[in-house]
Write a structure and sequence with these properties.
flat
């Protein structure tokens, strides 16, 4: 069975292999889900904030190409 470091590296390599658009969309989805999860844990309505934060992060990651290598 693969250890946590090996799983992290495999996931990191997969994410770095994504195109600029797919990486930005993945980031937006993860951010949206995270904010919604925190809202559920705190028992508050965060739907609008979650979607807004997800769209904003996706746009920023796409605009600034955070996944670009320093090659």
């Amino acid at each position: 069975m693969a250890g946590p470091r090996q799983l992290y590296r495999r996931l990191d390599d997969w994410a770095r292999g994504l195109s600029r658009l797919r990486y930005a969309l993945l980031t937006g989805v993860i951010v949206t889900a995270s904010v919604l999860a925190v809202g559920v844990l705190l028992d508050t309505t965060t739907t609008v904030q979650a979607v807004t934060m997800g769209v904003t992060m996706a746009a920023l990651y796409y605009a600034f190409d955070m996944n670009a290598g320093d090659d």
